[in-house]
Amino acid sequence: MLGRWNQLSAFKRRFLLYYAILFLAATVAYPIVSSQKGFAYQGSLLLYRREETTDIYAGKIGGEGASFTVTDQGAVTFRQGDETYGPYLVRKDPTASPEEERTGVEVSLDGQVLFRGALLSSDGNAGLLLDESGEVVPSLSYTWTGAPPQTPSLETVIHLALGPTLSHRGDWLLYGCASFLVVLGVLAVLFDKALFRHNAAWYVADADNARPSEWYLFRYWMACFVLGLSALILYLSGLSHLT
Question: pTM of the full predicted structure?
Answer without folding.
Answer: 0.76
